[in-house]
Specification:
There is one protein chain. With about 750 residues, the protein is α+β, with helices and mostly antiparallel strands. The protein has three domains: about 5-30 and about 445-590, 2-Layer Sandwich (Aldehyde Oxidoreductase, domain 4), CATH 3.30.365; about 35-125 and about 195-270, Aldehyde Oxidoreductase, domain 3; about 355-435 and about 605-750, Aldehyde oxidase/xanthine dehydrogenase, molybdopterin binding domain (Aldehyde Oxidoreductase, domain 4). It contains 19 helices and 30 strands. Helix 6 (about 210-220) links the parallel strand 12 (about 200-205) and strand 13 (about 230). The longest helix has 27 residues, at about 515-540.
Length: about 750
C-alpha cells in the first residue's frame, strides 16, 4: 500500500472537475434533451386506494387532435413491471396513483387534456392504508397469494440467541416506529425513450446504474440486454431513488413504440412522490441481553416493513440481519422481518437506506440499556465494539476497523465527559455509532469495469459506467487515474453515462462507487502504465518496474525527474512509445469483483456526538453542533469527504426531526416541496470533521466508503440527543415539535420534568 509521501494526487483537496459546468448552468440534464419529432407523455393514475376496474374507454382521447398514442393494459396485457405487477393496471387498482393508462401528444397541454377524456369506471373496494390495519385479523386480503397480507418473511439466527438471552443478567425491550418518507431530489424523475427502431431501444434518464435498467426493459420488451441503450449523463441526485427502472420508463418506451416517435415523460411535483418509491412505514422491536458489567450477550430485532401495494423492493427485508453483526462482539443475534402489503404506493428506500431509520431507534434502545446498567453510553459502545480482524457471526470479516478510535475521538473533541448528564434543562447530548458496507454481493453482483485510453498525443481518456449524481465520483476516478499515470486530474477526459460506450458497471449504490469502481479504474490505469513502462523502460536502460510516474513526468527511480536524470515528460514518453506513428493508442483495462460470495470486502465505521437544544414552549429543536469521526480507510479527496459529511449530517437531522409524508386513506396529503417539511440550509449545525484513516488492504489506495455511512450515525446521534434533552426515549421519528410538546407536558404533569 502506498505511503502518503509516495502519493502526489491522492489525499489532496481537489475541487470538483465539473464544478464550473454545474454552477454556470452549462451541464446538460435529461430534461434538457429534445429529439426531433419528440412527443410528450402523460400518465392517467388511479384516484382510489383499491378498486375494481369495470370499464376503460380511450376513444375520445385518441380522437383529440395532436394525440399520437394512447395505451392501457389492453395494449400491453402481458407486460409486467415486476413479478405479479402489470405495467398498466389490469382488472384492479391497488393504490392511489397506480398507472392506468397513458397518452403521447405533440404538446404537454394536449396530453394533459387527453387524460381528461379517458373514461374509467371503478367499483371502489375496502382498502388497507396503514401497516397496523394490514396486520389485523379482519383486514381485507389485498392479494390472493398473500394470506394475512404478508408478502415475504425472513428469519435468521446467528449463534444460539435463546441460550444467550437466558445467560444475560438484564434483558431490555423497546419498540420504535418510522414513517413514510420521501427523498427530495434536485432533478425530478424523467424518461425520454426512442423505440422507433424495433431492434434498438434508447432511453435517456437519470439513473444510479445502467445494467438493472437494461435488463428490466429488455425482459419487458423481448430484447437482448445489448439492444437497450441507457444514456444518463448528469444526474441530479439519487439517494437510492434511481436504483431501478420505474413504470414511467416502460410506459415511455411503450408509447414510443406505438407512436413511432420519441416520447418524454416528466414527473410533476405531485407525481414525484408516487414515482420515487420512498421509505414505507416501519415497526421495530429491539431486545438486548447484557451482563451486569455491560457485555452484550444477545441482540434481537423484529422489523415489519410496509411494502405498499407491490413488493418491489423486497431486498431490503434481508439487510438488517447482517447489519446487527457489524458493530459489536456478541454471542448471538436474532432477526425476524416481514414485508406487509398495504393499499399504498409501493415502497423503496430513503437516503441512508434502511439502516438510518433502524439506527434512530436501535441506538436509543442501546442508550436505554446503558442507562439501566448505570453506564456511560459512550463507554458501553466502546466496551462492546469490534476490533480489526474481527470475524462476525454472519461471516463478515473486518480487515480494517477504526470504530474504537472514532468513539475515542468524538468523546474527546466534543467534551462528552464534561457534558453528558450535566447540561442545563432541555439541552441534550447524544452519541451514535454505525457501520456501512463498501459495496458487496448482499443484493446483486458487484462487478465494475473500466478502460483507459492513452492516445498518441498524450491525452488520457477514462471510460467508466459509474454515474456522477453529485457525489463527485468522476473527480475521484480522475484522481485515481492521475495518481497511477503520474499526471494531473485535469488531464483526464472522462467518458461516461452511455451503456453503448462505457464498460459494465453495476452503478452508484450500496456505497460501492469509490471502492469497487475505484479498484477497477486503478487496475485499468496500472495496465496502461505497465504497457507504457514496458516500452519506455528499455529506452532509458532500465526495467519497467524501475520507472516512476508523477508530476507529469516519467523517470528512473532513485534519480531526479529533471535534466540531470534519465527522464521524459509524460507526453515525451508517449511520443517515444509510438515512435511518431499517429493513430495508435494504449488501452488499459481493469475489472473488479469482490472474490467473496456474499457481503463486502470492506466496511466503514463512524461515531458522532450531537448537541441539541429543545424549546420547552414550542417544541422546536435546534441542532447546535455535530462532532463526526469516520473511518473511511483513506481520504482520497478530503474536500469531497467534508462535503459528503455536511450533506449527510443535514439529511440525517432532516429525517429525524422533519420529514414525514402525512397519509389519509392512501393519499399523500403533503406531496410538494412546500408542504413536505425540510430544514433550511441555515439550520445546518456546526460540523467538526475527524477523518480516521485505517488504510484498508482491499480498497483503492486504502479507501473505503463514506457516501452513506455517516447519515446512519447522524440519525442515531441526533435522536439520542433529543431524547436526552427531554428526558426519555422517543418511540417515533420525526421528532416534531408537537410530539416533543406532548412528552414535555406529560413529564411536567407527572412531576418528571427538570426544573425550568
Amino acid at each position: 500500500m502506498s505511503k502518503p509521501e509516495d502519493l502526489s494526487v491522492i489525499g489532496r483537496r481537489q475541487p470538483r472537475l465539473d464544478g464550473f459546468e454545474k454552477v454556470s448552468g452549462r451541464s446538460v440534464f435529461t430534461d434538457d434533451i429534445v429529439l426531433p419529432g419528440m412527443l410528450h407523455g402523460r400518465i392517467l393514475r388511479s384516484p382510489h386506494a383499491r378498486a375494481r376496474i369495470i370499464r376503460i374507454d380511450v376513444s375520445k382521447a385518441r380522437a383529440l387532435p395532436g394525440v399520437k398514442a394512447v395505451v392501457s393494459n389492453v395494449d400491453a396485457p402481458d407486460m409486467l413491471f415486476s413479478e405479479k405487477q402489470p405495467l398498466l393496471a389490469k382488472g384492479f387498482v391497488h393504490y392511489v396513483g397506480e398507472e392506468v393508462a397513458a397518452v403521447a401528444a405533440t404538446d404537454p397541454l394536449i396530453a394533459e387534456a387527453a387524460l381528461d377524456l379517458i373514461e374509467v369506471e371503478y367499483e371502489v373496494l375496502p382498502a388497507v392504508t396503514s401497516l397496523r390495519r394490514a396486520q389485523q385479523l379482519d383486514a381485507p386480503q389485498l392479494h390472493e397469494w398473500a394470506a394475512g397480507n404478508v408478502a415475504l418473511t425472513h428469519e435468521k439466527d446467528f449463534g444460539d440467541p435463546d441460550a444467550a438471552f437466558a445467560a444475560s443478567d438484564l434483558v431490555i425491550t423497546d419498540e420504535f416506529r418510522s414513517p413514510v418518507q420521501h427523498n427530495t431530489l434536485a432533478e425530478l424523475h424523467v424518461a425520454l425513450a426512442d423505440f422507433t427502431n424495433p431492434d434498438k431501444l434508447h432511453v435517456w434518464t437519470p439513473t444510479q446504474g445502467a445494467p438493472m435498467y437494461q435488463m428490466a426493459l429488455a425482459k419487458a420488451f423481448g430484447l437482448e440486454t445489448s439492444q437497450v441503450r441507457i444514456v444518463y449523463g448528469n444526474v441530479g441526485g439519487a439517494f437510492t431513488g434511481r436504483g431501478r427502472a420505474k413504470p414511467h420508463h416502460f410506459i415511455a418506451a411503450l408509447l414510443s413504440r406505438v407512436a413511432g416517435k420519441p416520447v418524454k415523460i416528466k414527473a410533476t411535483g405531485d407525481e414525484e412522490f408516487i414515482m420515487f418509491r420512498g421509505s414505507g412505514e416501519t415497526q421495530y422491536r429491539f431486545r438486548t441481553g447484557v451482563t451486569r458489567d455491560g457485555k452484550i450477550r444477545a441482540l434481537e430485532a423484529d422489523v415489519t416493513f410496509d411494502a405498499g401495494a407491490h413488493a418491489e423492493w423486497a431486498m431490503i427485508l434481508w439487510l438488517p440481519a447482517p447489519y446487527l453483526n457489524w458493530l459489536y462482539k456478541v454471542d448471538a443475534v436474532r432477526y425476524r422481518g416481514r414485508f406487509v402489503y398495504t393499499s399504498t404506493v409501493p415502497k423503496g428506500s430513503h437516503h441512508g437506506g434502511i439502516f438510518g431509520r433502524l439506527s434512530a431507534g436501535w441506538m436509543q434502545h442501546l442508550n436505554h440499556v446503558a442507562e439501566e446498567l448505570g453506564m456511560d453510553p459512550a463507554e458501553f459502545h466502546r466496551k462492546n465494539a469490534i476490533d480489526p480482524g474481527h470475524h462476525a457471526l454472519d461471516g463478515s470479516d473486518f480487515a480494517s476497523c477504526g470504530l474504537k478510535e472514532c468513539i475515542d475521538r468524538v468523546v474527546e473533541r466534543s467534551g462528552w465527559k464534561a457534558k453528558y448528564g450535566k447540561l442545563p434543562p432541555y439541552r441534550g447530548i447524544g452519541i451514535g455509532i454505525g457501520a456501512q458496507a463498501s459495496g458487496g454481493k448482499n443484493a446483486a453482483n458487484d462487478t465494475s469495469a473500466a478502460m483507459i485510453r492513452v492516445a498518441d498525443d498524450g491525452v488520457v481518456t477514462l471510460y467508466t459506467g459509474i454515474p456522477d449524481m453529485g457525489q463527485g465520483s468522476h473527480t475521484v476516478m480522475a484522481m485515481i487515474t492521475a495518481e497511477v499515470l503520474g499526471v494531473e486530474p485535469e488531464d483526464i477526459r472522462i467518458v461516461g453515462g452511455d451503456s453503448d460506450i462505457t464498460p459494465f458497471d453495476w452503478g452508484a449504490f450500496s456505497q460501492r462507487g469509490t471502492f469497487t469502481t475505484g479498484n477497477a479504474v486503478k487496475l485499468a490505469a496500472e495496465d496502461a502504465r505497465a504497457q507504457l513502462a514496458g516500452i519506455v523502460g528499455p529506452l532509458l536502460g532500465v526495467a519497467a518496474t524501475d520507472l516512476k510516474f508523477a508530476h507529469r513526468r516519467v523517470w528512473v527511480r532513485g534519480e531526479t525527474p529533471d535534466a540531470t536524470g534519465r527522464s521524459f515528460s509524460f507526453r515525451e514518453a508517449i511520443g517515444k512509445a509510438f515512435n511518431g506513428v499517429q493513430g495508435l493508442a494504449i488501452m488499459g483495462r481493469g475489472s473488479f469483483n469482490s472474490p467473496r460470495p456474499s457481503g463486502s470486502l470492506a466496511y466503514s465505521f463512524g461515531a458522532q456526538v450531537a448537541e441539541v437544544e429543545v424549546d420547552p414552549e414550542s417544541g422546536a429543536v435546534k441542532v447546535i453542533k455535530v462532532t463526526a469521526a469516520h473511518d473511511l480507510g483513506r481520504a482520497l479527496n478530503p474536500l469531497a469527504v467534508e462535503g459528503q459529511l455536511d450533506g449527510q449530517v443535514f439529511s440525517g437531522m432532516s429525517q429525524v426531526l422533519y420529514e414525514e409524508c402525512r397519509m389519509d386513506g392512501g393519499q399523500i396529503l403533503n406531496p410538494s416541496r412546500l408542504e413536505y417539511k425540510l430544514p433550511r440550509t441555515y439550520e445546518l449545525p456546526e460540523v467538526e470533521y475527524i477523518l480516521v484513516e485505517t488504510i484498508d488492504p482491499y480498497g483503492p489506495f486504502g479507501a473505503k466508503e463514506v457516501g452513506e455511512g455517516p447519515i446512519v450515525v447522524t440519525m442515531a446521534a441526533v435522536a439520542n440527543a433529543v431524547a436526552n434533552a427531554v428526558g426519555e426515549m422517543l418511540p417515533q421519528i420525526p421528532m416534531t415539535p408537537w410530539r416533543l410538546l406532548r412528552v414535555i407536558r406529560h413529564r411536567r404533569n407527572h412531576g418528571l420534568a427538570p426544573a425550568d
